[in-house]
Write a structure and sequence with these properties.
Elements lengths: L13 E4 L5 H4 L8 H15 L3 E8 L2 E9 L13 E9 L8 H15 L4 E7 L3 H9 L3 E10 L2 E11 L17
Parallel strand pairs: 4-5
Antiparallel strand pairs: 1-2, 2-3, 3-4, 5-7, 6-7
Length: 182
């Protein structure tokens, strides 16, 4: 059947700290609905409760459509040492809401939190074969500084780790760029 009509709508998105009830939505995203992902989400929420990280959620229409976890300290201290360097991980946007600036806004909020907490560097990693994410992070001002592997569900994956120095000057933070309405 031919397309009869098309319209554009503006979507209001709120970035906030995750709540327990968000897990019911985040755990059902196709591709992220495994037992290992559910375990990770619960771990992130627990880490947030005890003050060792922040699980951010992008919410639209009362439903989480994006997420990001901000590690304050990691075992691999070059990624997050709890003093000068903080790490973004588990950044995901639901497929129906991608390419609308939600990931950019999540990262902006995470960088703002890091800056407010006194961190000087933010790191982020991506799988070696995820060229789109690598290009996106570089467009935000991140630069590659190391390649290593991470373990997920008993398997090891090569990754590219990037970092960005946070501006603490009187002029305020450097924005990642305005993605327009989200």
């Amino acid at each position: 059947m031919a397309e009869l009509d098309r319209m554009t709508i503006t979507l209001e998105v709120t970035i906030r700290l995750a709540r327990q009830e968000d897990l019911a939505h985040l755990e059902t995203w196709q591709g992220f609905d495994s037992a290992e992902h559910r375990k990770a989400l619960r771990y992130y929420l627990t880490a947030q409760r005890i003050g060792s990280g922040a699980l951010l959620v992008a919410e639209a229409g009362g439903v989480p459509v994006g997420q990001l976890f901000l590690w304050y300290r990691r075992l691999e201290t070059s990624l997050a040492d709890g003093v000068e360097t903080i790490s973004i991980t588990a950044m995901r946007v639901h497929p129906e809401f991608r390419r609308r600036g939600i990931a950019t806004r999540l990262a902006q909020v995470a960088e703002g939190l890091a800056r407010d907490l006194g961190y000087r560097w933010v790191t982020i990693g991506t799988d070696v074969d995820n060229d789109a994410a690598h290009r996106l992070y570089r467009s935000w001002g991140y630069e590659e500084f190391v390649r290593n592997t991470y373990e997920w569900d008993g398997r090891h994956y090569p990754q590219i780790c990037l970092r960005k120095r946070l501006d603490h000057g009187a002029g305020g933070p450097e924005p990642l760029g305005d993605p327009g309405p989200v």
